[in-house]
Design a protein that fits this description.
Layout (H helix, E strand, L loop, with lengths): L5 H11 L11 H14 L4 H9 L2 H5 L6 H4 L5 H9 L5 H20 L3 H4 L2 H9 L6 H9 L3 H13 L14 H7 L3
Helix pairs in contact: 2-3, 2-11, 3-7, 3-12, 6-7, 7-10, 7-11
Length: 183
């Protein structure tokens, strides 16, 4: 099943978002809202704000996602989420979502200090996702459409894990989703 309405997306964020975000100190919803707020404060356009809000929606639409890293499985939440949203949004939203995991692999390959900034859970998931890119993968990745947006999203993603941080609720981001929704 794919999301067909913004109301369905908000309902998933509100109902499933209360679950803990893996071993991070925030819920899935808190993480999503913090990431979207960072994008908003960073001057991103509507599509990147929406992508930031929904980058981990695949964790919420995949029942096994909560225990996947414990089991040593990568469920490719980035692909699951982009597929779930594909009838509702275009590539300007979907591709940064699809590429945000690869952005972590890219950043660990090009920035020596990046790995030290990752939470223990992000380091663990990096291993499951294939580790840092090889040099040829670095060049191929950054040349891809929307890769630079995914790198921005990734940086906000890494910073969106602050316990107790107040953010606007999902309804605050509905106008951005409406702006990005396919006709």
């Amino acid at each position: 099943m794919t999301a067909t309405t913004i109301e369905q997306v908000v309902a998933v964020l509100e109902s499933m978002g209360a679950h803990q975000y893996g071993r991070e100190p925030v819920s899935q919803q808190d993480h999503a809202l913090q990431c979207a707020e960072l994008a908003l404060r960073g001057g991103a356009g509507a599509s990147l704000i929406v992508a930031s809000l929904l980058h981990d929606i695949g964790h919420l639409t995949e029942p096994e996602a909560e225990t996947a890293d414990v089991d040593g499985t990568d469920l490719r939440h980035e692909a699951t989420g982009a597929k779930w949203l594909s009838g509702l949004f275009g590539d300007d939203v979907l591709m940064p979502i699809r590429l945000h995991v690869a952005a972590k692999r890219y950043l660990t390959a090009i920035e020596e200090s990046y790995m030290a900034k990752l939470s223990p859970q992000s380091v663990r998931s990096l291993e499951l996702q294939g580790g840092p890119f090889a040099p040829v993968e670095v060049e191929r990745y950054i040349a891809a459409p929307f890769a630079k947006d995914a790198v921005l999203l990734r940086r906000w993603d890494d910073s969106a894990k602050v316990a107790g941080k107040l953010t606007p609720g999902p309804e605050h981001f509905v106008p951005y989703m409406q702006e990005c929704a396919l006709a």
